[in-house]
TrEMBL record:
Domain HTH arsR-type: 1-87
Protein origin, superkingdom: Bacteria
Keywords for this protein: DNA-binding, Transcription, Transcription regulation
InterPro entries from the UniProt entry: ArsR-like_HTH, HTH_ArsR_DNA-bd_dom, HTH_MetalResp_TranReg, WH-like_DNA-bd_sf, WH_DNA-bd_sf
Pfam families recorded: HTH_5
PANTHER family: TRANSCRIPTIONAL REGULATOR, ARSR FAMILY (PTHR33154), TRANSCRIPTIONAL REPRESSOR SDPR (PTHR33154:SF33)
SUPFAM superfamilies the UniProt entry points to: Winged helix' DNA-binding domain
Keyword Glycosyltransferase: no
Coiled-coil annotated residue ranges, if any: none
Originating species: Cognatishimia activa
GO molecular function: DNA binding; DNA-binding transcription factor activity
Name under which the protein is recorded: Transcriptional repressor SdpR
Keyword Chaperone among UniProt keywords: no
Length: 101
């Protein structure tokens, strides 16, 4: 449980969860949305994965990340994101990405 709270304590990690709310994204697609190095994004993804909030699936040379929707923390986080003024536009962008795929 501590790893979940540690994962959710970071604004970039909460934003990553918002981006993954409606679609799966590769590490590169996630990194494009942040002004930080790819190793930093990788570290954030590792923390989220270790907490059981996301899973990475290797497809060729890419790793695609998705939410583990069965995790109650993700259900609660999704609810909070619907009312959060920071996450709401990120969830909207996630839906638009999903529709474009």
């Amino acid at each position: 449980m501590d790893s979940v709270f540690q994962a959710l304590a970071s604004a970039p990690r909460r934003k990553i969860l918002a981006y993954l709310s409606s679609t799966d994204l590769t590490a590169g697609e996630i990194a494009e949305r942040f002004d930080m190095s790819k190793p930093s994004i990788s570290k954030h993804l590792s923390v989220l994965e270790a907490a059981g909030l996301i899973k990475g699936t290797k497809k060729g040379q890419f790793v695609t990340y998705s939410l583990i929707s069965e995790n109650i923390t993700n259900v609660l986080n999704g609810f909070v994101q619907d009312v959060c003024p920071v996450s709401r536009p990120l969830k909207k962008e996630s839906k638009e990405i999903a529709e474009g795929k």
